[in-house]
């Protein structure tokens, strides 16, 4: 067991038990947030190699960077779900659980005798969360779903590029994460409802549905105009000026979402006359004359450095930012002041840095994290403490290849 794994974790979900069959990203991100909020999360992994992400380089000791990023504060148990004894362990744990989370293709959990219709008979209070790529009733239901596949089908990838360039996937796995985030909304709503009714629900979320739901005003552009939004790079489809502008030694982001900020920006440029110029006076004027305005701004901003413009933009209260690398962002004073980075210690792997959860209650962030577990690191402890097995029973399951408990 990882150091301090048995330590109580205060939080609004303290006392809630989550049985997590999910793997890779959609699902593990959701269960990690539940753990951050104080829930006890038992991650059920295949006995052979565990969650597929355990094998993705680079590594910190025996742990993959990918696995570390998504599995803090969880217990890992490794059992053989192809064996009846392994299924029995899973069902016994499900009877004690408040939430079950899985992200297999439709039908897989049913074939394992762990589907919702089976488990709700044994635990009517169980909230059963399923994250799929496309949903059980989609014509794409049986199609393998990965983030990039759903991004392509959502339409989002078609606009994630500069005009005339090849489409790009988003820099973060947003479709996977959207599935996790919307599943959290559903699980927490069902948990609230259960406090009233005493009964759980089956909460289903599709990754593709989730990313389409996050398109926001982009969908409405199509509904209102009949035209699909076109790629504009860092610019905005309907707000000008907005996006990345070149300086003499780099680029700066400027975002003028209101008339006040547009006026501030014009003054910052030393070109107050742009405010009353009929080509640029109103939103629709600037949009219609985007290219002319962009050319004027770029000519002016290329004359000075990034540092010059960042200081001047701040002086004139214009929403702006440098374009940081991931490393620069993690080392930025904001990350330090908000205590977004923490160092945890695993007794075998040693120290590792993690990004903390962003949710604060009464000004306090999450409790200190517990390092991600090695595969099956907590199996024996869970079997003893949760299912009441004795040492001989646990050892027998190891001998027969039903469970894995690393020494």
From TrEMBL:
Pfam families (alphabetical): CoA_transf_3 (PF02515)
The answer to whether keyword Transferase applies is yes
> What InterPro entries does the record tag this protein with?
CoA-transferase_III_domain, CoA-Trfase_fam_III, CoA-Trfase_III_dom3_sf, CoA-Trfase_III_dom_1_sf
What's in the keyword line of the UniProt record?
Answer: Transferase
- Domain of life assignment: Bacteria
Q: Give this protein's Gene Ontology molecular function annotations.
A: CoA-transferase activity
Protein name as catalogued: CoA:oxalate CoA-transferase
State the species of origin: Aliiruegeria lutimaris
């Amino acid at each position: 067991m990882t150091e301090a794994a048995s330590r109580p974790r205060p939080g609004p979900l303290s006392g809630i038990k989550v049985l997590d069959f999910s793997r890779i990203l959609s699902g593990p991100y959701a269960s990690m947030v539940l753990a951050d909020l104080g829930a006890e999360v038992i991650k059920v992994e295949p006995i052979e190699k565990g969650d597929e992400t355990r094998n993705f380089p680079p590594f910190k000791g025996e742990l993959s960077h990918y696995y570390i990023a998504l599995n803090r504060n969880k217990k890992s148990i490794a059992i053989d779900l192809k064996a009846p004894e392994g299924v029995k362990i899973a069902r016994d744990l499900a009877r004690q659980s408040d939430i079950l989370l899985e992200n297999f293709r439709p039908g897989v959990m049913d074939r394992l005798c762990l589907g919702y219709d089976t488990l709700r008979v044994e635990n009517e209070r169980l909230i059963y969360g399923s994250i799929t790529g496309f949903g059980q009733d989609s014509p794409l239901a049986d199609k393998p779903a990965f983030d990039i596949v759903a991004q392509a089908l959502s339409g989002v990838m078609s606009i994630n590029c500069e005009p005339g360039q090849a489409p790009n996937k988003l820099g973060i796995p947003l479709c996977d994460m959207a599935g996790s985030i919307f599943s959290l909304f559903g699980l927490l709503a069902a948990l609230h409802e259960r406090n009233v009714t005493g009964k759980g629900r089956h909460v289903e979320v599709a990754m593709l549905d989730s990313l389409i739901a996050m398109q926001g005003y982009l969908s409405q552009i199509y509904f209102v105009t009949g035209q699909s939004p076109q790629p504009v790079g860092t610019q905005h489809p309907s707000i000008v000026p907005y996006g990345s502008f070149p300086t003499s030694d780099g680029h700066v982001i400027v975002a003028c979402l209101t008339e006040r900020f547009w006026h501030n920006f014009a003054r910052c440029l030393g070109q107050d006359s742009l405010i009353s110029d009929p080509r640029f006076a109103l939103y629709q004027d600037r949009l219609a004359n985007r290219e002319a305005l962009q050319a004027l701004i770029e000519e002016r901003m290329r004359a000075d450095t990034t540092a010059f413009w960042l200081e001047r933009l701040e002086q004139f209260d214009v929403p702006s930012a440098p374009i940081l690398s991931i490393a620069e962002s993690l080392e930025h004073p904001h990350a330090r002041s908000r205590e977004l980075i923490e160092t945890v210690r695993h007794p075998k792997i040693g120290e590792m840095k993690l990004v903390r959860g962003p949710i604060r209650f009464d000004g306090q962030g999450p409790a200190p994290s517990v390092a991600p577990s090695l595969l099956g690191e907590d199996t024996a402890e869970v079997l003893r403490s949760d299912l009441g097995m004795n040492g001989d029973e646990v050892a027998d399951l190891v001998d027969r290849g039903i469970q894995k408990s690393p020494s």
